Write a sequence for this structure.
DNA sequence: TATGAATGAGCCTTCATTCAT
DNA sequence: TATGAATGAAGGCTCATTCAT
């Protein structure tokens, strides 16, 4: 049923179908056909809106990044204290959207592919650096002696918890992860 | 020219070629032919020694795990103190073999695939739990109040540092990672 | 913004775009979309005016033939002498329109396709016979002993020169071709 | 039925199937599958021996060229007179192999494609120049005043006759073509 | 024990055509 | 009259697997 002005609708549909497919059956088993079927459209439409499969995958990863950024923004009050900032970051990274198995698996799939796919690698780097600088900014404001080290430490902890959770059959225990991160921050601050 | 007693040689050859191929060109670009070419043998030989491609991949992951285990054993003195045990674990995880980009990328590729490949998932779980219980054992011996939590925290830190390093263009800075882990242990111990 | 009386304009636009596309990127790379883009219209319009792609291609070949015919008419004086007729034919076949690389390539593409496309084959035959009978008529009037043979010979020479020119990277050297044809006619006449 | 030493057999099989397919159904309708089916093998084998479809097409054109060259060699006596050389060239170009509709159509298809396919264009140029220089050599030895012009003329005549024949439903009338070429040579010589 | 020829399913992509607007 | 969204078939290519030698 051809319509006009379908572009934003279709793009959203296809990106969601892509994320779902990667999350459910994995990166390797995600084919153009599997995505199209999931979205309830024909396979040809992907070329129409995204040029090719890679274009759709890239758009999907961008969407995940945008979502993460938006999540954080919404959790940050105006002029947040360092503690509020750290809290917001932690909670964003273990929020429902990030922790839901579909997204988690999709993230990990992209990370893994990023190692040999420049287009993904670049996006991946953006994400990595954004987390690091956000954390560093907060630690600096808290007058932590080596904010860079503290940031690296907490960033790794977040990613590690997230990774282990994503790989675990039970999924991510968000509450426990948040608790572990908080405790880590307390240790860092108390050590000053 | 068929020879006898080639099995262990061929298996080693092929497993190494597999690890190198995954590390260098990625999981997706690693084909039976690319592995065979790298090993300097014909593609048919894989079926002969490993049944099929999956068999070879599984054997390769097993080999990585065995290597990691062996590394740790060799670093552990007899009757190690808890500190010695933690040190050995940390150093093993950031040892040359683990930190070299080929292995790191291969590990991550397997992890990512593990999410949808039961054979990999099982091996992955073994690894995860081994690290956790090793750490927990040490923390218990150190009379840390919640050794489970401490182990989860340090395990996540190790994996997170390792993950971020593997994804970084510069590779893993082993020394810095070890330092961060030590500092984390100090914080935990001092907080008691 | 639909307009009335657009038919002749659109048809011309599309036929020109088709010829340009075939000439520039070749028959195989000429798609409905590439034609529409070149003509600055949407792809759907082709079905509207020509039924389908084949209809447009056929119309394009017809246009080339009509152009050739018109060219000849304009070069023929009233009641031409046989020599004038031969001259006009030769000059028409190596005129700017025919010699320009776009047209030459388009002609050859159609010829090649004609071998397996009845619609093109028919048009192609018309062209071939027109040239032959025009030449024969002139040679007869010149009292050449075997006008049929002479016509076949000159027709082949014209087509051969044209073919070799079209295939040559430098394009067709019209002047030299005309000279060669004239010389051929001289030889035939002198041999009587 | 896998065998060893099949390469030359398979290559020949596939090249013949390609020529037959192009000749029978045309360049556009010649698919990897249609070739494989004709050769009685699977489609994958083309990649095995020729890399890809283009590799096979190129090999096919090379084969046609080689055949033409061989044909000429076999017709040339040792130390041929100029007349013998010209005769051999003419007869080769209108020999059974060249005149059979399959080959003729295949040649024309390649010529047409050559305009936009550098790989074909190069081969096509070789052929064109070989014919020209062969003719020129003979005309020079006959003390024709402008051997270059004479060669261009006869080359065009040969190609033109061949082209018109290939495009004609009745195929090429080899005898008549040879006769026309001979007459052309006579005219050139007598005009000295 | 080892080769590599051969298969064929499945992938991504291209593209003529259709049709609601 | 005109658009361009949408379809789906068909193409070329890749690749794990099989198997005669």
């Amino acid at each position: 049923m051809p319509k006009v002005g379908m572009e934003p609708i279709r793009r959203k549909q296809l990106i969601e179908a892509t994320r779902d497919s990667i999350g459910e059956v994995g990166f390797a088993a995600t084919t153009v056909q599997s995505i199209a079927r999931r979205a309830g459209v024909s396979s040809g439409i992907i070329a129409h809106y995204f040029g090719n499969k890679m274009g759709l995958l890239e758009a999907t990863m961008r969407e995940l990044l945008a979502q993460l950024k938006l999540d954080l923004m919404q959790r940050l009050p105006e002029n947040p204290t360092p503690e509020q900032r750290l809290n917001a970051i932690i909670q964003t990274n273990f929020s429902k959207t990030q922790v839901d198995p579909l997204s988690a698996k999709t993230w990990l799939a992209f990370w893994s592919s990023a190692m040999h796919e420049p287009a993904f690698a670049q996006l991946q780097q953006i994400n990595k650096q954004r987390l690091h600088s956000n954390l560093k900014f907060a630690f600096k404001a808290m007058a932590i002696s080596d904010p860079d080290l503290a940031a690296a430490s907490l960033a790794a902890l977040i990613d590690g918890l997230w990774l282990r959770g994503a790989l675990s059959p039970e999924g991510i225990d968000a509450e426990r992860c948040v608790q572990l991160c908080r405790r880590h921050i307390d240790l860092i601050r108390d050590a000053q």
Observations:
- Chain B has ten helices and no strands.
- Chain B has a mean pLDDT of 93.
- Chains B and D do not touch (no CB pair under 8 Å).
- Chain B has one domain: 7-190.
